[in-house]
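Notes for week 9. Today we move from apo structures to complexes. The key idea is that a small molecule is not decoration. When we ask for a structure prediction with NAI present, the ligand SMILES becomes part of the input, just like the chain. The input block below holds both the sequence and the ligand string. Read it once before you look at the output, and try to guess where the molecule might sit.
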Amino acid sequence: MSNPSILILPGDGIGPEVMAEVRKIIDWFGTQGTTFDVSEDLVGGAAYDKHGTPLHDDTMARAQEVDAVLLGAVGGPKYDDLDFSVKPERGLLRLRKEMDLYANLRPAQCFDALADFSSLKKDVVAGLDIMIVRELTSGIYFGEPRGIIHEGNERVGINTQRYTESEIDRVARSAFELARRRGNKVCSMEKANVMESGILWREVVQKVHDEDYPDVELSHMYADAGAMQLCRWPKQFDVIVTDNLFGDLLSDAAAMLTGSLGMLPSASLGAPMANGRPKALYEPVHGSAPDIAGQGKANPIACILSFAMALRYSFDMGEDATRLERAVEKVLADGLRTADLMGPEGGTPVSTSEMGDAVLAALSA
Ligand SMILES: NC(=O)C1=CN([C@@H]2O[C@H](COP(=O)(O)OP(=O)(O)OC[C@H]3O[C@@H](n4cnc5c(N)ncnc54)[C@H](O)[C@@H]3O)[C@@H](O)[C@H]2O)C=CC1
Ligand SMILES: CC(C)CC(=O)C(=O)O
Ligand SMILES: [Mg+2]
């Protein structure tokens, strides 16, 4: 049998820095008898610099073949003035669309060691474990028409929010399936009060629930109120299912419940491949963080936890995933802190690579 295959796309800014720490962990698994066939390629600004496109067709083809893609982050100020069609972020959107990765799982868990550090009160976040399921291949990031057009004397920026029933149906099913393996509760968030796409979203989620998941507790919430509730009392939620735009915003907000944007991993999953496993891309929720890139300050934990999700969802290595998560828990409990996690309560300051080394040491102990 061939080794499991991984395509690594480090990307831009802190992407390569945090991915280097995951690479150490992948190499360590090789010494333990699980060798991954790893290939590496360019995406985002790095791909644009070499090929004039943020995602080369060969890279796209390779992404379709492998068992899992690991991505760091894309984008940066250097590319701000590029034509929109070749912006780094378009490379990532193309991967998501062409791999049809419709369910983006963004778990927000607050490790005990960071409960004091969160900007919210300790009892609000301690023990928090919620899962945001964000629809990832449709909605306003992809809808047509889009563009900037001229109308009279001025320009008009246009994006279109568009959802088909089947797009809502399949992501709702992902959320209900996950809920059954967790706290058995789904809260669906949209803006059915002001958007037709929200009305359809609510109807379809309710129908999927009533027909196939009546055992799961379902509630509906307007996304603006949902954002407020997420900050007020996040433990009321188990699984949140929402659209592409709202999921993007709500998950960055949820990251702060865990202490830092540098803590939040994600798995983007599509339909099962011939081997029964989903097409998959794993990436931290954060971006390329140009303000700290190249300084050894980036927190690699979101990227490391994204690899743990890969072990769980793409490689049937759930026990190893849990071991890796426990290793992260241990280094945090030991007081190791990258700059983003350093608060008045202190801790041992560590660089990106020192944090990666410590996680690896805890994993291999
Ligand atoms: N999936 C991706 O590749 C994403 C890419 N981006 C792109 O990244 C670029 C920068 O976007 P921003 O809005 O600044 O968002 P960002 O997520 O890169 O950074 C926001 C803030 O969080 C901090 N931060 C992020 N990750 C961190 C980590 N691992 N450790 C410590 N601190 C961390 C940054 O220093 C910054 O202060 C843009 O070009 C944006 O389009 C943004 C979000 C996702
Ligand atoms: C294409 C990305 C830059 C959008 C984003 O912020 C995200 O997916 O979290
Ligand atoms: Mg985002």
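The domain at 1-102+265-365 is CATH 3.40.718.10 (Isopropylmalate Dehydrogenase).
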